Amino acid sequence: MLHIILFLTLSLLFSPPAKATVQDFCVADLTAPETPSGYHCKDPKKVTANDFAYSGLGVAGNTSNIISASVSPAFVSQFPALNGLGLSGLRLDLAPGGVIPLHTHPGANEMLVVLHGKLTVGFISSASNVPYVKSIKKGDTFVFPQGLLHFQLNDHKTHALALAFFNSPFPGLQILDFALFANNLASALVEKTTFLDDAQVKKLKAALGGTN
Predict the structure, then answer these.
(1) pLDDT of residue 19
(2) Quick one: which residues bind Mn(2+) (predicted)?
(3) Is residue 94 part of a domain?
(4) 97 and 159 both lie in a single domain
(5) 116 is in an annotated binding site
(6) What are the DSSP calls for 122-176, one per residue?
(7) What percent of the chain stands above pLDDT 90?
(8) Which end of the chain is less congested by CB atoms within 10 angstroms, N or C?
(9) Per the domain annotation, does 16 fall within a domain?
């Protein structure tokens, strides 16, 4: 009996393991429909090293606009190799006086790294409305917790450049100013809910493209 048990034990120890299939990556096939869990995978036989490289963050954005700033995303639709990896990023270019207005990312935390210039950044806590504001320079990093109102402002005389990274492929975005004044929500309702007067609301709607 003992020799049978020993034989079975040795057989288990030295038998080849069952082959497990591990999916190392799922480069998005942007020609296929997007699903709730992401894009379908590109045929692995057609994937090359080029799929895992992206140069879009090396291109300066156009800051000739109302906020004197530009956001260049690196999401799945721009960088298909991010599909299924649970992360994304973007580039921020801010001319002197440029601002990314108060906004939220409902689906992700954000980590900002300054590559050039200086920025004043901050967020507002939801529990007690405490503002956390700091001036950061080249090489500094700042984090914005998920869902909290936050901003980036270049209040210096030189161009500023930063990269931001998110722990989600879909961080989401809602800019407070545009949510309030770039739609057709009745001005009277905006005035009642923001305590702003009629002239100010209509001025902001005209500037940001809102109506009604």
Answers:
(1) 54
(2) 103, 105, 110, 150
(3) yes
(4) yes
(5) no
(6) EEE-TTT--EEEEEEETT-EEEE-TT--EEEE--SSS-EEEEEEESSS----EEH
(7) 64
(8) N
(9) no
Same domain, 144 and 161: yes
Number of domains in the chain: 2
Would you tell me the crossing angle of helices 198-208 and 187-194 to the nearest 10 degrees?
Answer: 120
Q: Are 167 and 108 in contact (CB under 8 A)?
A: yes
pLDDT, averaged across the chain: 89
Number of C-beta neighbours around residue 136 at 10 A = 19
Q: Evaluate whether residue 195 is within a structural domain.
A: yes
Looking at residue 170, its amino acid is F
Question: Binding site annotation covers 110?
Answer: yes
Contact 162, 115 (CB under 8 A): yes
Q: Mark whether 193 and 154 lie in a shared domain.
A: no
Domain range for 187: 179-208
User: In 10 A of CB 101, how many CB atoms?
Assistant: 16
Structure pTM?
0.80
Q: What integer pLDDT is reported at residue 171 of this predicted model?
A: 92
Residue 180 has, within 13 A of its CA and on its CB side, a CA count of 21
The answer on 188 and 168 residing in a single domain is no
Q: Is 105 labeled as ligand-binding?
A: yes
CB contact at 8 A, 107 and 177: no
